[in-house]
Write a structure and sequence with these properties.
Length: 485
């Protein structure tokens, strides 16, 4: 048994522990369910699982990991984890809309600009600084477009862009359309249009050169431009759009949560297994679309083949409409809350955004026989994977602190300036007044008042009979009333 085998088993057992630690189990208990399965704390824990999954997904896509078949189960699993984030975002919007009066007032400023746009540009600046330090070769125009956000400084930072677009569509629909089902239909149409548009955009600027220029090595030497490369522009990749339908499911689930929960509480086992079977059929449809048509048709040698990409997309839409819904119905009977998933849930966005930096900084470990040599390639990959996980968290926490500081400076209401009374007294006519003089004068006045009170004991004596007379009046009145009776 090799060191890698032992370590991989430890990793697997660690994940099993995360799925058990802090579990709330209602299986085998008829008519008992987790009433908190949609609570903020539980959702944070679920997002924590998704954040860990996304980081492992990115690690598994590294070339040496794919060559060695390490973490192969995570290579195509990224969209499933991202779907959880989309679902939770949609769910939270409806719940906040119902719970908070005038929620849409200031929505763009608070929920889009402050919560999404600011973290995005903070991340852009951080990556820009890192690239400048290491002298990463970028064209001057690319520096400008990257810093402006029109092209991708961090190719992992696509999620905030899509989320901001979906938030804006949500705002426009619920601001100007009063009928919620109509809002859901409009949002669904927009998501589908966005998906089809993403298929048209493709993975790179396929339209910018001669036919199938990306397969011509000579073209890369003579006619290739930086903006023609992969993942440069927005929507350069199916991952931008294929998990977005889960956002709509989150909206609908939140809107009809009471009815949905009541429906599944009756004959839960039967209904859940039917739902699970439907989900598996949708998964098979998704797998069929990817294996028979595919998103990466550019490399089949038959041109761009847009039709195959669109078919693949529509084969995946049903799965991402139902997948996270099925997960939440399962959580009615079983969910987990523990410090690890809670921590990752708190820093999920920023660990995700800083994951590329960690992957890049530590890549020398991944490559065998460069700087680190501890045995076979898989041992290097193990060290690399663990190090990326730790550094992603470290970078993410730092970035979140920086982002919060920027948000506070930009959006916190200004503190009212209280003008001390003595400010107006500082000028004695000649500009020579001193605060110490004012404090000393005030102290002397207090002492003088105290001496004045002590020096007139007769005044105190005069006031005491008056007080006694006042106290006696109610008693005199009582005696008069008794005589009358």
């Amino acid at each position: 048994m090799t060191g890698w085998t032992i370590a991989s088993q430890i990793v697997c057992y660690s994940f099993i522990i995360l799925f058990i630690w802090g579990a709330s189990v209602k299986f085998g208990k008829k008519n008992e369910f987790n009433d908190d399965f949609t609570s903020l704390e539980v959702m944070k824990s679920l997002r924590g699982f998704a954040a860990i999954g996304v980081i492992i997904h990115h690690i598994s896509q590294e070339p040496f990991f794919q060559e060695e078949g390490v973490l192969s189960a995570f290579v195509n699993a990224g969209a499933y984890f991202v779907a959880i984030f989309f679902f939770c975002s949609g769910f939270g919007l409806i719940k906040s809309l119902d719970a908070k009066k005038d929620y849409l007032k200031g929505f763009i400023r608070k929920r889009i600009i402050k919560s999404i746009v600011v973290p995005f540009y903070v991340n852009v600046l951080i990556y820009g600084i890192l690239m400048f330090i290491v002298k990463y070769p970028l064209d001057k125009v690319q520096w400008l477009t990257n810093l402006s956000g029109f092209t991708m400084m961090n190719r992992f930072a696509w999620f905030p862009i899509v989320l901001a677009i979906l938030y804006l569509v949500f705002f426009l629909c619920f601001r100007f359309i009063k009928n919620r089902p109509v809002c859901f239909v409009v949002i669904f149409i927009f998501i589908i249009a966005m998906g089809v548009g993403g298929m048209c955009v493709g993975h790179f600027a396929y339209w910018a050169g001669p036919d199938q220029w990306w397969t011509d090595e000579a073209f890369f030497e003579n006619g290739f431009k930086w903006w023609m490369d992969q993942q440069i522009f927005w929507f350069n990749g199916e991952w931008w759009v294929n998990a977005a339908p889960a956002f709509l499911t989150g909206l609908i689930f939140a809107n009809y949560e009471k009815q949905i929960v009541a429906f599944f509480k009756k004959s839960y086992a039967l209904k859940f297994h039917i739902l699970l079977a439907i989900t598996m059929l949708c998964y098979q449809l998704s797998s069929f679309g990817q294996s028979h048509f595919g998103y990466w048709t550019e490399w089949d040698g038959n041109g761009y083949e847009l039709d195959k990409k669109i078919i693949t997309y529509f084969c995946q839409v049903p799965l991402f409409l139902i997948l996270v819904f099925t997960i939440f119905i399962f959580m009615m009977k079983y969910h987990v809350k523990n410090p690890v998933t809670g921590f990752f849930g708190k820093y999920s966005l920023h660990t995700y955004l800083m994951n590329l930096a960690a992957l890049t900084v530590l890549r020398f470990i991944e490559v065998p026989d460069v700087l680190v040599k501890v045995g076979d390639v898989k041992n290097n990959l193990l060290i690399y994977g663990v190090s990326v996980m730790i550094l992603s968290v470290f970078f993410g926490v730092i970035e979140q602190k920086i982002t919060e500081s920027v948000q506070n400076k930009l959006f916190s209401p200004p503190r009212p300036k209280v003008k001390p009374v003595y400010i107006s007294l500082l000028d004695d006519g000649e500009g020579k007044a001193d605060i110490r003089d004012i404090a000393r004068d005030k102290a002397e006045d207090v002492k003088a008042d105290a001496k004045a009170v002590e020096s007139k004991p007769e005044d105190k004596a005069k006031t005491e009979p008056k007080e006694e007379a006042k106290a006696a009046k109610p008693a005199d009145k009582a005696k008069k009333n008794n005589k009358k009776k």
